[in-house]
Amino acid sequence: MSTNYQKGRRVEYAVRDQLIKAGYFVVRSSRSKGPADLVALKRAIYLGRSIVVALLVNCKLDITACSREDWNETYFAAMDAGAVPIIAGKLNKRIVLLEMVSPKRIRESVLDVSKGFML
Q: Considering the entire predicted model, what is its pTM?
């Protein structure tokens, strides 16, 4: 029987292998408690100039189960580092990598107490 750690590690290895196959240099943070499980780097040409593309990758057994706190920690760390934030993991039994394009926010309603209704 596999532990959650072992299942998560297998997902990280599968994501790592996909990134290596795509030409990235990948570093895995074992037992990561930080914003990224994987950091991936790749040289690219953009507008005729050589640049390095950096990805901060948060791996999950189930992408849909990523908490708001985990999502935002990865998103803001990537923004601070000038990297692309990625959520990766299983979705419908397939390994997928998706770019985080914005932070996860809780929908906030504004209550106008004086009128007693929601705006």
A: 0.81
